[in-house]
Design a protein that fits this description.
By secondary structure, the chain is an alpha+beta fold. It folds into four domains: 65 residues; 101 residues, PAS domain (Beta-Lactamase, 2-Layer Sandwich); 75 residues, Helix Hairpins (Orthogonal Bundle); 153 residues, Histidine kinase-like ATPase, C-terminal domain (Heat Shock Protein 90), CATH 3.30.565.10. Helices cover 51% and strands 22% of the residues. The chain contains eleven helices and twelve strands. The strands form three sheets. Strands 2-1-5-4-3 form a five-stranded antiparallel beta sheet, sandwiched between helices. Strands 7-9-10-12-11 form a five-stranded mixed beta sheet, covered by helices on one side. It has a two-stranded antiparallel ribbon with strand order 6-8. Helix 9 runs antiparallel to helix 11. 19% of the residues are buried.
Length: 404
């Protein structure tokens, strides 16, 4: 420890005493001289000691910062939700080029609104606890708007004599995606098992009918209507197997930009013959200047054909199917299909889309399940609302080209 303070203060005391001796001819070694010199010695020692520990603290702080900067995990310190310090990993994770650009920014600017309540609860808990609070998961965004999942552990600390929060975390997006993929594979395996059992049950019924008629044929009891029934049952088996194959096998869909207006017009034209025979009219209205969507044309046509077919069958006495296509929010298109049919009981709505769960007498449930699967693969949403004896409203929301 250097004694610069002591030397300076003692020197001042001696020089002042020499000045008094030269001007007022006072004695040099007086009681005042010894008292002031001793005070100067003690104050200088305290000053040198404070400077020594301050320098040591700064060196320690720099060492800690160097150590924290070398950590691969993001580490940052905040006060009142504003960044006071962030290591290089945190700066890079947030998408900044320089640390200075991140310091002072509000932490809430990087957390998605859906997670604000969770963040506030966590913040209050951190202020109460003296030990590190258990890890919490947030969905965050970088400065360029891209999102990621972030897992963080926080601790209340004191910095420069004021309360602050130290947080250590990591980007878990890859881990989340891997977990999600495993869950999807597990769900697919469970679904295939459920579908296989359902198919065995559904196919057994028409096979039993076919077996009975073949026995009649062997007994030479042959009527023309028997052949029609056998063919009808075989077609039913073929339809079940076809829908199952579509759901089970991966398809290499080719996504191109399409105008929904033209696509829907083609479907309406295609199904109009059937709807006219059933005394059903399809009325379609479009918003002006609709953006295009990126889709697999044949798959979307299959969805609309299935939904129009279901709506037609739900109106045995005829009626109108209203179709409204419009923009919805930022970068989305909404297709609303509304019928005047018999409707679906409220307790059955939650099971729609499950295989072999249907409101139709001879349905399999695979058609609507196929619709859900196709819309999901197009990053869209299929929502069904229904009131018994009043009708069903189906809304399909798809992302438009601008948001993809």
């Amino acid at each position: 420890m250097k004694r610069i303070g002591q030397v300076i203060l003692v020197s001042i005391s001696i020089l002042f005493t020499i000045f008094q001796k030269l001007t007022d001819h006072h004695l040099f070694f007086t009681l005042d001289f010894f008292i002031f010199t001793m005070i100067a010695w003690i104050v200088g020692w305290q000053y040198d000691k404070a400077r020594y520990y301050e320098k040591k603290a700064r060196a320690s702080e720099e060492s800690y910062k160097t150590l924290i900067d070398s950590l691969p995990q993001p580490v940052y310190i905040t006060r009142n939700h504003h960044f006071l310090y962030a290591n290089l990993a945190a700066v890079q994770m947030a998408g900044f080029e320089r640390r200075e650009d991140m310091i002072g920014r509000n932490l809430l600017d990087f957390i998605l609104p859906d997670y604000n309540n969770r963040f506030n609860e966590r913040f209050n808990q951190v202020k109460k606890e003296k030990s590190a609070v258990n890890t919490m998961e947030y969905k965050a965004k970088r400065i360029d708007g891209s999102t990621f999942f972030f897992e963080v552990t926080s601790l209340s600390i004191s910095l420069d004599g004021k309360d602050a929060i130290l947080s250590i975390g990591k980007d878990i997006t890859a881990r989340k995606e891997q977990t999600e993929n495993l869950l999807q594979k597990s769900e697919k395996l469970a679904l295939l098992g459920q579908m296989a059992a359902g198919i065995a049950h559904e196919i057994r019924n028409p096979l039993t009918s076919i077996k009975g008629f073949i026995q009649l044929f062997k007994a030479h009891q042959i009527k023309d209507e028997y052949f029609d029934i056998v063919l009808s049952e075989l077609n039913r088996i073929n339809a079940i197997v076809g829908e199952f194959l579509f759901l089970a096998k991966p398809t290499a869909a080719v996504y191109l930009d399409h105008d929904l207006t033209l696509l829907l017009n083609d479907v309406v034209t295609l199904i109009s013959t059937q709807t006219i025979l059933c005394n059903v009219e399809i009325a379609v209205t479009y918003d002006g200047n609709l953006p295009k969507v990126s889709c697999e044309e044949n798959q979307l046509k299959q969805v609309f054909l299935n939904l129009f077919k279901n709506a037609t069958e739900a109106m045995p006495n005829g009626g109108t199917i209203e179709v409204n296509v419009k923009k919805k929010g930022e970068g989305q298109i909404s297709i609303v299909i509304k019928d005047e049919g018999v409707g679906i009981p409220k307790e059955r709505l939650s099971t729609l889309g499950e295989p072999f769960y249907t409101t139709k007498e001879k349905g399999t449930g695979l058609g609507l399940m196929t619709c859900y699967k196709i819309i999901e693969s197009h990053h869209g949403i299929l929502d069904i609302q229904s009131i018994v004896n009043k009708g069903t409203t189906i809304e399909i929301t798809l992302p438009s080209i601008a948001s993809i």
